[in-house]
Amino acid sequence: MKVVILGCGRLGAHLARRLDQEGHDVTVIDRTSESFSRLGSDFQGKMVLGTGIDEDILRRAGIEKADAFIAVSNGDNTNAMASEIAKLVFKVPHVVARLYDPVREDTYHTLGLMETVCPTVMGSDKIHDLVMGNGKAK
Amino acid sequence: MYIIIVGGGKVGYYLAKSLLHDENEVLIIEKDKRKCDIISAELGGVVMRGDGTDSIVMEEAGMSRAELIVAVTGDDEDNLMICQMAKKKFGVKRTISRINNPKNERIFKLLGIDHTVSVTDLILAQIEREIPAHSLVHLLTLREAGVSFVEAKVQAGSPSVGKRIKELGVPEDCVIPLVIRNGKGIVPHGDTTLMSGDEVVAVTVVDDEDILERLLAGNSAN
Hints:
The complex is a heterodimer of chains A (138) and B (222).
Chain A: E1 2-6, H1 10-21, E2 25-30, E3 46-49, H2 55-60, E4 68-71, H3 76-88, E5 94-98, H4 102-111, E6 115-117, H5 119-132
Parallel strand pairs in A: 1-2, 1-4, 2-3, 4-5, 5-6
Chain B: E1 2-6, H1 10-21, E2 25-30, H2 33-43, E3 47-49, H3 55-60, E4 68-71, H4 76-88, E5 94-99, H5 104-110, E6 115-118, H6 119-130, E7 136-142, E8 147-153, E9 174-181, E10 184-186, E11 199-205, H7 209-217
Parallel strand pairs in B: 1-2, 1-4, 2-3, 4-5, 5-6
Antiparallel strand pairs in B: 7-8, 8-11, 9-10, 9-11
């Protein structure tokens, strides 16, 4: 599978390494070159320097042939816009965006253009369950 | 009319000033404290400090009762988010967005953002007019209709010099409604002969622009 990942932070780099080890064709985009050091020296994929909301940069990352686009930069707005470009302009079949803000996540989820992941809600649910025992408060 | 402007830079500030003058209810949302202080010192209590892309801030600003949202931050992704949230989440009918990267205009249109203003495009068009690097100057483009109004200067040595308009072989979907000669407008007809220095205004489908450029300006600039 050809996967383009936007954002080489902790999540982006972790996911990129994992997909790379599984034998997928991975390209990572980030605005700062230092971020790519998170990928480690054994990373086989491609690295593209630039902003993820620029069609030219996305093209350079091979988005035209990508099976999946994953937006996990640290900005919700960047992730949303990049995902919309991936879906509407490049017709990438699988688009996933990370959005920290639950309200934004809800809105974009409803729009139905992309799949959304909200770490705030996921984290909160998980912690709630850990403390309250699966939602069954005593 | 209640208008919310997101972004308190120079564009946001002067926009607010004019809109207030026209007796609108205006609120500026701006992140930066220093900018907020300047705005409230100059215009009074019309500024709210916060991230205009944050749904909580949007709600506090009373976005659901706003008739118009104007997003004029320096970041396209923020402007897009503001307009989309305003429309989808808060039911705002009209949004206007500033665009910094001209290529994003198409994306905004695809996503239903009614009106966009591309500052870069405006300046570029002005430069084209002043210093024509391309022989075809875009006066107006109706993107959805796929039609543009263009202007071309007939250069000395161009194959169109001395030709009548009907002899040019202009594509079917092009019309030449105006020729400017020595600063005076002429409404041409098929028998009008083009002269060196004429400025020809044409209406054309976007796809035929290249043909038109070749016919009118010849091999001059490009």
